[in-house]
């Protein structure tokens, strides 16, 4: 393994966050994760992450309401638009995972916490690279289309509180991915794009473990603070997430993450019913 110029995990995490080129960010993150996993990098350390991660000039970042919704079509351009939007999510997910490891390193957390979020960061980098490969196969690339900057707001809004960060990022945003990805997989298969469908299935299956990690550490931190986890989750989501959670929920995948309906169903918007 290449020797990395870092003395601690948090120093390396900040370096990933400060890397603007998306491909370089993903590959550096994978190298850091490998060094941590193999015991080459052992110190957690202390380093202050930036308020915002470095970003490339492209894609142009727009308000969420100005980014066109991506519809899956049999045409390569339609599938590329969807994959581009997903790649942007995964790029943000890389930064969110490294940010939680660096930002909360001083919170007296066990080593297992860092093991889990380094693994999540490594997964997100692998996902981003897979999606970039699929974009290349469709004669496109990450940066070819505008994207929105709403995802990083979750990081900024919860930067002061580990419990709030765990409630909103893995247990709202990533859990939402479990709900919507299976339908995208089926639509891609219907469009004849088995390779892209396979990539999304891998991402979905990995995200179950990410939600599980978020739920596990949320409950651990709630117990440490002496607060009841379910009611605390409801309070934090209402405080830091805009709007209600959107059903239908993929209860099968959420159950695999041991993320029970008692957490999320009370926060759900009513399902629309057909007129009588």
Attribute tags:
globular; mainly alpha; 2 strands; 276 residues; 2 domains; two-stranded parallel sheet; 10 helices; 62% helix
Briefly, what is this?
This protein has helices at 9-17, 22-37, 76-103, 111-137, 151-157, 162-190, 194-225, 229-240, 251-256, 261-264; strands at residues 61-62, 147-148. It is an all-alpha fold.
- Strands, total number: 2
Counting H and I runs of at least 4 residues, what is the number of helices? 10
* Biggest β-sheet: strands ordered side by side in the sheet: 1-2
SSE arrangement, N to C: HHEHHEHHHHHH
Measured on Cα atoms, how large is the radius of gyration? 19 Å
Structural class by sheet pairing and helices: mainly alpha
- Give the total of domains: 2
Describe the structure.
The protein has 2 domains: 1-50 and 76-148; 158-270, no CATH class. 62% of the residues lie in helices and 1% in strands. The chain has helices at 9-17, 22-37, 76-103, 111-137, 151-157, 162-190, 194-225, 229-240, 251-256, 261-264, and strands at residues 61-62, 147-148. It has a two-stranded parallel sheet. Helix 1 runs antiparallel to helix 3 (76-103). The mean pLDDT is 93.
Detail the topology: elements first, then pairings.
Blueprint (H helix, E strand, L loop, with lengths): L8 H9 L4 H16 L23 E2 L13 H28 L7 H27 L9 E2 L2 H7 L4 H29 L3 H32 L3 H12 L10 H6 L4 H4 L12
């Amino acid at each position: 393994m290449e020797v990395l110029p870092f003395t601690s995990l948090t120093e390396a995490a900040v370096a990933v966050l400060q890397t603007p080129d998306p491909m370089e960010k993903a590959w550096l993150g994978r190298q850091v994760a490998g060094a941590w996993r193999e015991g080459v990098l052992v110190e957690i350390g202390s380093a202050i992450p930036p308020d915002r991660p470095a970003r490339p000039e492209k894609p142009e970042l727009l308000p969420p309401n100005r980014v066109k919704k991506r519809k899956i079509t049999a045409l390569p351009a339609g599938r590329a638009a969807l994959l581009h939007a997903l790649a942007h999510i995964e790029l943000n997910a890389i930064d969110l995972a490294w940010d939680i490891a660096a930002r909360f390193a001083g919170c007296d957390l066990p080593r297992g916490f860092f093991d889990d979020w380094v693994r999540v960061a490594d997964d997100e980098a692998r996902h981003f690279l897979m999606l970039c490969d699929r974009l290349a196969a469709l004669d496109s690339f990450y940066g070819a289309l505008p994207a929105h900057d709403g995802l990083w707001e979750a990081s900024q809004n919860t930067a002061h509180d580990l419990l709030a960060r765990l409630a909103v990022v893995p247990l709202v945003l990533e859990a939402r991915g479990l709900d919507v990805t299976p339908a995208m997989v089926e639509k891609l298969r219907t469009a004849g794009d088995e390779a892209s469908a396979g990539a999304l299935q891998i991402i979905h299956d990995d995200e179950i473990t990410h939600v599980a990690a978020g739920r596990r550490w949320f409950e651990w931190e709630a117990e440490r603070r002496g607060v009841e986890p379910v009611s605390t989750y409801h309070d934090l989501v209402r405080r830091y997430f805009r709007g209600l959670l959107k059903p239908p929920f993929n209860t099968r995948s959420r159950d695999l993450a041991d993320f029970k309906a008692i957490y999320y169903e009370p926060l759900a918007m009513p399902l629309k019913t057909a007129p009588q």
